[in-house]
Amino acid sequence: MTAPSGREVFFDANDLIVSKTDLKGRLTYANDIFLDIAGYTEAEVIGQPHSMIRHPDMPRCVFKLLWDTLKTGSEIFAYVMNMGKNGDHYWVLAHVTPSYDAAGQIIGYHSTRRLPNPQTIQSVVIPLYRELSGIEESHANRKDGLAASHQKMLDMLAGKEQRYDEFVAGLALAA
Asked: Which long-range contacts (CB under 8 A, 24 or more apart) does 76-81 make?
């Protein structure tokens, strides 16, 4: 796996990054904007885990919240820092929804990402995610670290009387 380069790249505010996955999170579709910003070809991503673009500085508890929400059949909004093939990173405001078959069964997930407000990323998201990642890294056992950061996030949200996606939506609206 490529190491982070420390360089941030941006996409156009009018662009939408779109991908679809199966129930296990393996990519079944990626639009051209996804491929361009991540630096991969379609052949390199289809069938691969969506986590192939996960930046190592992303707190794992955010993905736990995301997957826990999706498995209930609910949609979620989340700020995510992804990493391209060359190690460059880019921030997105992701809207992830379950995809259903004709019988109403969840068959995968659909994610549309847009460019987030850079001020929100700098002033709120980065400090929060650094704190959560620090909690995760402070535990010798990865499970314990995840549990501790997840609890920290839940406590913060409880104090605001919000779910994570409500917190994110509030940040997006305030921007």
From this structure: 76/164, 76/165, 77/165, 77/168, 77/169, 77/172, 78/164, 78/165, 78/168, 79/116, 79/120, 79/121, 79/125, 79/129, 79/168, 79/171, 80/113, 81/55, 81/57, 81/129
Over residues 105-128, the mean pLDDT reads 96
pLDDT in tens, 85-95: 999 999 999 99
> Do the beta carbons of residue 61 and residue 132 sit within 8 Å?
yes
Question: pLDDT tier at 169 (50, 70, 90 boundaries)?
Answer: confident
| 9 burial level (CB within 10 Å; 0-12, 13-18, 19+) | middle
Backbone angles phi, psi at 17, to 5 degrees: -90, 125
- In this predicted structure, what is the pLDDT of residue 173? 74
Distance CA 36, CA 153 (A): 32
